[in-house]
Amino acid sequence: MSGAVEARIAELGLTLPEVVPPLAAYQPAVRTGVYVYTAGQLPMVQGKLPVTGKVGAEVTPEEARDLARTCALNALAAVKSVTGDLDRIARVVKVVGFVASAPDFTGQPAVLNGASELLGEVLGEKGVHARSAVGVAVLPLDAPVEVEIQVELTDEG
Length: 157
Fold this sequence. Notes:
Blueprint: H1 4-11, E1 29-32, E2 35-38, H2 61-83, E3 89-100, H3 108-123, E4 130-136, E5 145-153
């Protein structure tokens, strides 16, 4: 049964996806005490990257912003995989985003706003977080964006 957070996701016209399977030797999310840390989430949709390449070259900043939203949604799915219920999120503590960037691209913060805004739309004040937006030369599978989140849960239950 879905709770208030998943109802809000549906209200936004979105669907919480299945957890993206790991590409290597790691878990999509790990829980320790009242915290959940996700692995870096690529903008996979039904097992595939909809776009590949560098932001500022093959990928527009607007496309990358939308892909960052998808990454954040995939991160929420990873959180749910270890908590069973997104309503247990007390707050998003930190978001770290990586943008595969053309050499002259400097708009990483605007790209990562896609993830930050999605978390705010879904979680309200609980979605307000600290963040890093980092430009990198390349990401796995030539993905344009990768996002990881850290959340605090309401209890250790």
